[in-house]
Predict the 3D structure of the following.
Amino acid sequence: MMITRAVVPTLFTVLNMFCGFLSIVHSSDGKFVEASYLIILAGVFDSLDGVMARLTKSSSAFGVEIDSLSDVVSFGAAPAFLVYKLSLYQLDVWGIIISSLLVILGGIRLARFNVQLVGFDKDFFSGLPIPASAIAVVSYVLTFIVDENRLEGMASSFFPFLVIVLSLIMVSTIKYDTLPKFSGKEIKKHPIKVISVFFSVLLVLFTKGEAIVYLIAAFVLFGIIRHVVSLFRHHPKSEEEIEEVPSYDI
């Protein structure tokens, strides 16, 4: 019975990987819009496999490993190939190096996650999740692509910088909140998070997807700002500051 239940989430994981492969095929044919939507579809299947694993109570170490392998394809290799074929090929060798960061650092981020994983429920991730990085890339492409085969001038110039930043944030120690599960317990524990996600979904639907790029940008920037603020709050006093504090003998 356990084997039967485990097949359900694994099926969604396989569909995730298949969408990543199809995205690479479409990018190789110059169909960058279709390739971008396939990565988004892979993200949908990636979310559903976790939901199905919880519903069928079939979370396992095997599920974690195959999910990570699928993510490397769909959210690492697929967007890396997309950004290279669409724009970064113009930078020759540097374009190859910068594009490869999405799959290389994304793979490192997933490996680190797997070895640090304790249990299957977490309140936050250390580093930007690789699906979020991929969605940031494809939403940027879909927002600024022109004639389905090139980016706008300024958007194209900023693209390498965006890829580098997203790649580095994936292997950083910046904390990013996990998505809520919309259960009664989760709503009581994280009401602001649940409300934020709910209104974000409504905004995406209302704008027919145009708000995604701005919402993901806000998500990434919020994590960075919160991290910087926490560093200043816990920053230890320097030796000079300590020496300036008067001491009293008791």
Remarks:
- Residues 238-250 have pLDDT under 50 and may be disordered.
- The longest strand covers residues 124-126.
